[in-house]
Amino acid sequence: MHLLAAAALALALPVQTPAVSVAPLHFALGKLTVKGTYAKASDKRVNAALRAPIDARAKEYAANLSGSRATAYVDTTVKLNGPRYASVRYDMTIHSKVLWHPTWTRARTVTVDLRSGRALRGTDLFAPGVSMRKLTKLFTSSQPCFADIHLKRADLNGPGLQFALTGARLEVAVDGPYFSTATACGQQTIKIPYSKLPGFRLHP
């Protein structure tokens, strides 16, 4: 898979391009265009940051297929399209006799600072002294399944929490089973207005 600079301020994701050249995996991809100001960052760096979740997931699939064939699909949603940040959510689907468990289809997100070309970590979003107790309540209180989750600051950078910026709110995809809840809890997306987030550092 390659993300190419399609215009001065655009990145385009080609259709039907393998994410990694490792047989027997085939990745079918939709089209993605992200616009923003990234004059200080190279196209290559921004492209790599935006596609990193897909490349990483594809390598995980390929490493666990045990020689079995599979087809994986990605539904791409641009949550924030510049001017400072690009935030994208990738929803995964895989048809495989080996990787059948729902944890293999968890959504992944990425937010890239278009000025630096750097992908933001969860800890970049919140001030160092933010109350994790308050964040835990915001991220889990709407889902009874998540009642026993107690987040630590390190969890902000882990796979159990996937963050996406939008124009008005933060979307947090919480993977319940990652935090030892019942498998049926699955991955739930919580939407929180920026004004209600303690210690939020960005201005999308």
What does this 3D model show about the protein?
The protein is built from 3 helices and 11 strands. 17% of the residues lie in helices and 33% in strands. The strands form 3 sheets. The protein has a 5-stranded mixed beta sheet, covered by helices on one side. Strands 1-2-4 form a 3-stranded antiparallel beta sheet, covered by helices on one side. A hairpin with a 3-residue loop joins strand 5 and strand 6. The N terminus is likely disordered. The protein has 2 domains: 116 residues, Heat Shock Protein 90; 72 residues, no CATH class. With 204 residues, it is α+β, with helices and mostly antiparallel strands.
Compute the number of helices: 3
Silhouette:
globular
Main sheet: strands, sense, barrel? 5 strands, mixed
Average pLDDT across residues? 81
Helix share, percent? 10-25%
Could you name the CATH topology of the largest domain? Heat Shock Protein 90
Number of distinct beta strands:
11
What is the C-level CATH assignment of the largest domain? Alpha Beta
* CATH architecture classification name of the largest domain: 2-Layer Sandwich
Estimate the strand proportion.
Answer: 25-35%
Rg is 17 Å
Number of domains: 2
Structural class estimated from helices and strands: alpha+beta
Between the first and last Cα atoms, what is the distance in angstroms?
28 Å
Low-confidence stretches: 1-23
SSE succession: EEEEHEEEEHHEEE
Strand order of the largest sheet: 3-5-6-7-8
